[in-house]
């Protein structure tokens, strides 16, 4: 697939040490995406990145809910919420973009999850589905029509971003070898990675490998 620099954009989702081995919420092999993402960035004149950016005591943390543990599901005002270990704390080393990530072509960084009472997976809006990040308007102002997504985690922040990108009218492609998934086991069988991929495919999201792209 040939990249059109006038209408294509790469989105780099949450490539942060907090989501990598040794971090607070490690995605298996999460660190291995960094060199692949850097190779992808060379195909695009401009890209955006997202950064999970939680205040201490965020409502999505299990530690904020006595008697609960990471992985528990609770009901928030905006719907079901998985509880996570404390992670991506603002101004911590784990919350920074990975130091080996090439940021020379990243022209926008969106910090999400900074509202204490609302979690945020998608690059486009908070989990309440009302608070917008403004990304859709930023992309349209740059005549973007097709969005390529990579990063962490494939079954949460990448998947929710892809879902919202489709809803916003962008052709959306997930670069599979530049993502890694948590693959959380789910009731009824299967895991979060399988469910997310099936959901996105049904919406029209395409899945490619980096070697399918050319600039």
From TrEMBL:
Residues 12-182 form the Isochorismatase-like domain. Keywords: Hydrolase, Metal-binding, Pyridine nucleotide biosynthesis. It comes from the Bacteria. Its EC number is 3.5.1.19. The keyword Metal-binding applies. GO terms for molecular function: nicotinamidase activity. Pathway: Cofactor biosynthesis; nicotinate biosynthesis; nicotinate from nicotinamide: step 1/1. Belongs to the isochorismatase family. This is nicotinamidase. It comes from Endosaccharibacter trunci.
């Amino acid at each position: 697939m040939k990249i059109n620099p006038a209408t294509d954009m790469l989105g780099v989702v949450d490539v942060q040490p907090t989501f990598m081995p040794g971090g607070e919420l490690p995605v298996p092999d999460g660190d291995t995406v960094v060199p692949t993402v850097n190779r992808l960035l060379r195909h695009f004149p401009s890209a955006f990145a997202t950064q999970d950016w939680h205040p201490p005591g965020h409502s999505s943390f299990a530690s904020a809910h006595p008697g609960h543990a990471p992985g528990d599901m609770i009901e928030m005002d905006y719907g079901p919420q998985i509880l996570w270990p404390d992670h991506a704390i603002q101004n911590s080393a784990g919350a920074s973009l990975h130091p080996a990530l090439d940021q020379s072509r990243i022209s926008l960084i969106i910090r999400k999850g900074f509202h204490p009472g609302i979690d945020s997976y998608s690059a486009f809006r908070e989990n309440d589905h009302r608070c917008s990040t403004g990304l859709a308007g930023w992309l349209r102002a740059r005549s973007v029509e097709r969005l390529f997504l990579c990063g962490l985690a494939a079954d949460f922040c990448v998947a929710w971003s892809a879902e919202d990108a489709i809803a916003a009218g962008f052709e959306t492609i997930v670069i599979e070898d530049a993502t890694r998934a948590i693959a959380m086991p789910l009731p009824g069988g299967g895991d979060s990675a399988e469910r997310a991929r099936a959901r996105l495919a049904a919406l029209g999201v395409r899945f490619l490998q980096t070697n399918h792209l050319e600039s």
